[in-house]
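In the design runs reported in the main text, the only information available to the sequence generator was the tokenized backbone. The following block is the verbatim input for one such run; it is reproduced so that readers can re-run the procedure and compare outputs position by position.
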């Protein structure tokens, strides 16, 4: 893929014109621009795919992602960089270093926050804990109760981040571990219903903490067409309220742009996921006026 194809801009003008508005409509409004970048299911893929790979030749790789993130930060310094889990497991880098390299590289790219995927338990909960000091960012998970584990107090349900006067609340959700992960690896971790937890978290962040934007970092999967009753991001969006954006993982779903769904109150929720192995970087732009009211949402660019 040519570099010029990667470095594209989400033009606010095209979004506003799509809404039937001109740029002159906002001449008297000083908007604040937040860019949300995100990854999921990178699975220890540090290097790009070889040029001979049948599906993804010369794609992905940490160095390329880091360069792209840096270029976007030069364009807009107000960037939030998030990961939706399954950082570990997939290449010999994990087998040899146990997650150290992945977390150090994410720290160098200045990730702000991540949640846990099921494969992040592959070296056990103690193995994950032993690598956490390599991360200069936090982990959030609201529906894993770690009270009786070594992660108690180390992984919080949510975090509030301030960017350019915008108050952003981010909480994490994880897939049910039973049947996916050996019990000895997650020990006394207790799985809680993600819909119920999401309703509680979004209420706290939006109504009590007065966050301008509420984001769910989800590793429960985008959708399960063969199991329509299974909890997924699509169900999460429609059954809850007060969530503005769901950044997903687990199902390795490649979306060209976010899915827009209506929540329990009929308001829009964006759901996005960018596949796997670090091939793509998700980008979503938000614009706020002086009162931090959301006035537009840019498109997601897969790069």
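Verbatim output:
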């Amino acid at each position: 893929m040519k570099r010029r194809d990667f470095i594209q801009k989400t033009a606010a003008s095209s979004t506003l014109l799509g809404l039937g508005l001109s740029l002159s409509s906002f001449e008297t409004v000083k908007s604040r621009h937040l860019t949300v970048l995100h990854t999921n299911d990178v699975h220890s893929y540090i290097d790009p795919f070889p040029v001979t790979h049948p599906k993804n030749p010369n794609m992905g790789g940490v160095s390329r992602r880091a360069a792209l993130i840096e270029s976007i930060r030069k364009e807009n310094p107000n960037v939030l960089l998030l990961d939706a889990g399954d950082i570990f497991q997939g290449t010999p880098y994990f087998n040899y270093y146990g997650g150290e390299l992945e977390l150090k590289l994410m720290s160098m790219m200045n990730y702000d926050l991540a949640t846990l995927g099921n494969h992040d338990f592959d070296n056990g909960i103690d193995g994950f804990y032993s690598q956490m000091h390599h991360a200069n960012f936090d982990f959030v998970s609201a529906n894993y109760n770690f009270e009786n584990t070594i992660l108690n107090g180390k992984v919080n349900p949510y975090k509030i981040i301030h960017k350019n006067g915008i108050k952003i609340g981010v909480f994490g959700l994880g897939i049910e571990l039973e049947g996916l992960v050996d019990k000895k690896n997650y020990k006394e971790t207790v799985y809680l219903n993600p819909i119920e937890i999401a309703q509680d978290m979004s209420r706290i962040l939006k109504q009590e903490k007065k966050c301008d934007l509420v984001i769910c970092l989800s590793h429960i999967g985008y959708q399960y067409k063969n199991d329509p009753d299974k909890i997924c991001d699509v169900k999460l969006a429609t059954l809850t309220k007060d969530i503005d954006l769901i950044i997903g993982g687990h199902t390795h779903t490649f979306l060209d742009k976010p899915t827009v769904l209506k929540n329990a109150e009929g308001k829009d929720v964006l759901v996005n996921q960018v596949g796997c192995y670090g091939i793509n970087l998700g980008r979503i732009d938000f614009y706020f006026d002086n009162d931090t009211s959301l006035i537009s949402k840019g498109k997601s660019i897969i790069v």
